[in-house]
């Protein structure tokens, strides 16, 4: 009997071991490429960095790219159970209650309102109500039409959408991130349900049959980071959207269509281009990292087939890390880019180093890999 069953048992053990190795594409990385090493490097770089501010209507405030980086570092710290890093991130935030209170953005624009996602994430970790009181108005005012609203903005409200709607593709991260955080902090479905309705409208209006999005309806180019905002926005929303939400199937459909085509547009080295569908255009890190985050999360959440997509995500992650220099700054990040109906304009965009647009999505990948 022992002889009879020895070979099948050995075969089963070897098969199980091979299958396990195949299933750990997004778990085992060589030295220097682990999410723990990379996440710690980028987070420490952020702790020592200066604020990135922008000016809207004469008011300085924390730039959304810094908020995205701060949020990513905090999510990474929690996933890594790094209490010391959480405390450092809290200490960096504390002056926003006092000496840096003027850096709290005004609640007047989609790029500014997303700031609220950060104090709401802190609230969920610390249960300190100061964070809640700071963050929740940013979610509420995204749907509360101001007296100064234009006719177009009021029309969006009448249709049930945010008055901050613009049909710019980056909106679908800026809106979903704050509304999702408000839902998580309060448990009130209205926040995430309205964000889902908004996402469906953007998908219906802007997504093309190839799964991608023009930078704007009148600018027929598939800019990398712009598409990255859509990928990350759908991902963020699907992470928390209740299964019984009526819009979830449509959002999942749009997400999967995008991921399917991104798989085909990936460059041989694992990166994606500044113009996603143009392999002759230069490889850009911020968009690549956003796509990678979306794909890692999709594999782990079961939205994407693991066998098909985990090698794609792993290849992208491995390609990104060499773009991080010795100081912990991500290179080859496209500078902030307004729309322009000129293909050469996207080719010629300046590439910058250490910009928070590039630092943030690397951190998102880190926490997604270790969650």
What order do the helices and strands come in, and which of them pair?
Layout (H helix, E strand, L loop, with lengths): L1 H22 L11 H13 L5 E4 L2 E4 L1 H16 L3 H11 L16 H4 L3 H10 L2 H12 L10 H8 L12 H16 L2 H18 L17 H17 L7 H18 L19 H17 L4 H15 L12 E2 L8 H5 L3 E2 L3 H15 L1
Helix pairs in contact: 2-3, 2-16, 3-4, 3-6, 3-16, 6-7, 6-9, 7-9, 9-10, 9-11, 10-12, 11-12, 11-13, 13-14, 13-16
Description of the molecule:
- The protein has 371 residues and is mainly alpha-helical.
- The chain is 58% helix and 3% strand.
- The chain has helices spanning 2-23, 35-47, 64-79, 83-93, 110-113, 117-126, 129-140, 151-158, 171-186, 189-206, 224-240, 248-265, 285-301, 306-320, 343-347, 356-370, and strands spanning 53-56, 59-62, 333-334, 351-352.
- A two-stranded antiparallel ribbon has the order 1-2.
- Helix 2 packs antiparallel against helix 16 (356-370) and helix 9 (171-186) runs antiparallel to helix 10.
- The longest helix has 22 residues, at 2-23.
- The protein is globular.
- The N and C termini lie far apart (45 Å).
- 44% of the residues are buried.
- This is Glycoside hydrolase family 88 protein.
- It comes from Parabacteroides hominis.
- Keywords: Hydrolase.
How are helices and strands ordered from N to C? HHEEHHHHHHHHHHHHEHEH
What integer is the average pLDDT? 93
Total count of strands:
4
Q: Beta-sheet strand percentage?
A: under 5%
Structural class: mainly alpha
Rg over C-alpha atoms, rounded to the nearest angstrom: 21 Å
> How many DSSP helices?
16
Strand order of the largest sheet: 1-2
Shape: globular
Query: Major sheet: size, sense and barrel closure?
Result: 2 strands, antiparallel
pLDDT < 50 runs, ≥5 residues:
1-23
First-residue to last-residue Cα separation:
45 Å
Q: Helix amount, in percent?
A: 55-70%
């Amino acid at each position: 009997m022992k002889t009879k069953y020895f070979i099948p048992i050995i075969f089963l053990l070897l098969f199980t071991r091979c299958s396990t190795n195949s299933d750990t594409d997004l778990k085992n990385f060589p030295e220097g490429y682990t999410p723990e090493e990379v996440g710690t490097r980028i987070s420490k770089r952020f702790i020592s960095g200066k604020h990135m501010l922008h000016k809207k209507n004469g008011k300085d405030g924390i730039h959304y790219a810094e908020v995205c980086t701060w949020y990513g570092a905090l999510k990474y710290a929690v996933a890594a159970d790094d209490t010391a890093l959480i405390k450092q991130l809290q200490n960096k935030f504390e002056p926003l209650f006092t000496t840096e209170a003027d850096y709290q953005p005004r609640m007047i624009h989609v790029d500014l309102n997303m700031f609220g996602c950060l104090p709401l994430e802190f609230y969920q970790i610390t249960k300190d109500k100061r964070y809640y009181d700071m963050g929740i108005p940013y979610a509420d005012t995204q749907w509360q039409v101001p007296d100064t609203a234009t006719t177009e903005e009021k029309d969006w409200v009448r249709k049930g959408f945010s008055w901050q709607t613009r049909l710019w593709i980056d909106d679908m991260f800026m809106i979903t991130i704050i509304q999702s955080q408000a839902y998580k902090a309060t448990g009130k479905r209205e926040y995430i349900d309205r964000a889902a309705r908004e996402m469906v409208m953007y998908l219906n209006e802007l997504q093309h049959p190839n799964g991608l999005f023009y930078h704007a309806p009148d600018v027929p180019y598939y800019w990398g980071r712009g598409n990255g905002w859509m990928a990350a926005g759908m991902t963020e929303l699907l992470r928390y959207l209740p299964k019984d939400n009526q819009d979830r199937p449509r959002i999942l459909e749009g997400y999967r269509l995008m991921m399917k085509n991104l798989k085909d547009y990936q460059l041989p080295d694992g990166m994606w281009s500044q113009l996603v569908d143009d392999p002759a255009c230069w490889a850009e890190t911020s968009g690549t990292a956003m796509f990678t985050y979306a794909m890692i999360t999709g594999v782990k959440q079961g939205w994407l087939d693991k066998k098909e997509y985990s090698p794609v995500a792993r290849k992208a992650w491995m390609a990104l890390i060499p773009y991080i220099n010795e100081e912990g700054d991500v290179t080859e990040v496209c500078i902030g880019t307004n729309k322009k109906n000129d293909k050469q304009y996207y080719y010629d965009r300046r590439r910058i180093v250490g910009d928070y647009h590039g630092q943030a999505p690397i951190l998102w990948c880190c926490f997604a890999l270790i969650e």
